[in-house]
Write a structure and sequence with these properties.
Number of strands: 20
Oligomer: single chain
Structural class: alpha+beta
Strand content: 15-25%
Bound molecules: flavin-adenine dinucleotide
Radius of gyration: 22 Å
CATH class of the largest domain: Alpha Beta
Helix content: 25-40%
């Protein structure tokens, strides 16, 4: 038996079985006028595999069809068809949206995973990638050239989906947020036209992403970094309160180099709460990096030290098996100014309440350096030191969802009650929270005006950035 296909790459298309003998009449025009378009309906043997997404709650959704585009002109065709025929449209890249926005009941799903070309510029200072390229493919490609671009350690996500709304990961202090790496982009808007040189549109998608159209390709900055220091440090949980306060003090020092990135992760392993520190040093100056590693290790009792000289690819490979598989989801993500004593107390108490056997956790990343330099070309708003906080409580069964929602909501509400929340993180926050609180009033109003100018019919509504 052959292995199941990897839907990231080219898959077979046979109109007889993939479109099937009795496609919906709603698709008739698309099928007859565009015989080369790869349209997969529920009769296709690939349909169930192709429509799989990370959030199990929305996985049963039945779209009208998945259209696997292979060129920007096909993106335009599908958009025009949906607009003319008043059919709902959604875009599917890495499928890791935490709220299932890439798989909508009854919609035409523009599956852009085959738009995954990667081209390195001659000067090696940038790569141009297709709109559906997965982060892992970007990391692997750059690794072969001794290069990196900021990315998430969760390399299974779509790279543009990750970068649009901020884009957090271990290299952002050294080189800037994911969103700051985008030099230019090609975007097909609701009128089916390709836009390339509109600086206001670029400003908009660098923060609010797919609300304005489908990005078919984008150019990202790259940096030489053949090796770095990276890995986990597991500390004694009893000392966590002091350790967290001391980490914040250490990072408050004015001369902390941008190459240093620290994330603290709280979870329960084997029934016991743990404090894992994610240490990254984005430079080949290992002598200096090890000095900082020693400073961090001296903050408490290290139970396990897994930091070593690695590549970014290796760092992602280490994390890959620990990532939560497709799940029911109740994530919350927001930004706070500091890991203050009040904030640390909320997080530590929450981590003791994680039910045994469940992989719930709270990730924090201390953001500074290049990531907080003012960037007028991007609509992402926070440009002063802050902590990115991500409470992730995935559950394998729907009946466990209420409990996980209570746990993540409790963390958010306590932080709000203490007045600690500075802004929401658009990609992960949850659709019940305020989009305005992601951008601040000024940027929100500017984005809103842009949205209604570029997409007056709200064709691209199944996206995190809502302006209604
Ligand atoms: C397990 C896990 C770990 C994560 N870790 C991190 C992390 O470390 N740091 C961080 O910042 N975020 C993280 N995220 C958030 C993740 O990056 C976002 O959810 C991201 O939007 C997922 O993109 P995708 O392409 O995989 O998802 P999809 O579900 O395919 O798409 C998400 C949204 O983006 C739109 N979209 C995607 N690509 C395009 C495009 N080219 N043009 C137009 N619209 C597009 C889709 O329409 C949809 O609305 C994590 C998510 C998960 C599930």
């Amino acid at each position: 038996m052959s292995a199941s296909p990897d839907f990231r790459y080219k898959i077979e298309f046979d109109p007889l079985t993939d479109i099937g003998p009795r496609p919906s009449t709603q698709l008739a025009d698309l099928i007859s006028k565009h015989p080369k378009l790869k349209i997969y309906t529920s009769s296709s043997p690939h349909f169930q595999g192709m429509k799989a997404i990370w959030n199990l709650e929305y996985a049963p959704n039945e779209p009208l069809a998945l259209v696997r585009v292979t060129a920007p002109s096909e993106v335009s065709t599908v958009i025009k068809f949906c607009v003319t025929n008043n059919l709902p449209l959604a875009v599917r890249s890495g499928g890791h949206d935490l709220w299932g926005r890439s798989l909508i009941d009854g919609a035409v799903i523009l599956d852009i995973r085959e738009l995954n070309q990667i081209v390195l510029a001659e000067d090696q200072k940038s790569i141009t990638i297709g709109g559906g390229t997965q982060t892992g493919d970007v990391v692997n490609f750059l690794d072969g050239h001794g290069l990196v671009t900021p990315c998430t350690l969760a390399s299974v996500t779509g790279h543009l989906g990750w970068a649009f709304s901020g884009g957090f990961g271990p290299l952002v202090n050294a080189f800037g947020l994911g969103v700051d790496q985008i030099i230019n982009a090609k975007i097909v808007t609701a009128d089916g036209e390709m836009q390339e040189d509109d600086s206001e549109l670029l400003w908009g998608i660098k923060g609010a992403g797919g609300a304005f159209g489908v990005i078919t390709e984008a150019k990202f900055k790259t940096y030489p970094l053949p090796k770095m220091l990276g890995g986990m440090l597991i500390f004694k949980f009893d000392e966590a309160e002091n350790i967290l306060s001391d980490v914040q003090k250490l990072l408050d020092e004015e001369n902390v180099p941008a190459q240093l990135s620290i994330g603290c992760h709280f979870s329960k392993r084997g029934g016991a709460p743990t404090l894992t520190m994610m240490f990254s040093w984005a430079s080949v100056d290992f002598e200096e990096g090890k000095k900082w590693l020693d400073k961090v290790k001296s903050l408490g009792t290290v139970m396990m030290d897994m930091v070593s000289e690695i590549t970014m690819k290796k760092w992602c490979d280490i994390i890959a098996p620990m990532l939560p598989q497709a799940s029911y989801n109740s994530s919350r993500s927001f930004f706070i100014s500091k890991l203050s004593a009040e904030a640390a107390k909320i997080l530590l108490t929450a981590s003791t309440k994680v039910p045994e056997s469940l992989q719930w956790g709270i990730g924090t990343f201390f953001i500074g350096g290049e990531a907080i330099k003012p960037q007028p070309t991007s609509s992402f708003v926070l440009r002063e030191r802050f902590v990115f906080l991500h409470a992730l409580a995935p559950v394998p069964e729907k009946k466990q969802l209420t409990e996980s929602i209570e746990w993540t909501n409790d963390i958010l509400n306590q932080m709000k009650d203490e007045g600690l929340v500075k802004a929401n993180y658009l990609a992960i926050m949850g659709h019940d929270l305020s989009v305005q609180e992601c951008f601040g009033e000024e940027n929100f109003e500017r984005l809103k005006a842009l949205k209604w100018k570029v997409d007056p019919g709200n064709v691209f509504k199944h996206v995190p950035a809502q302006f209604t």
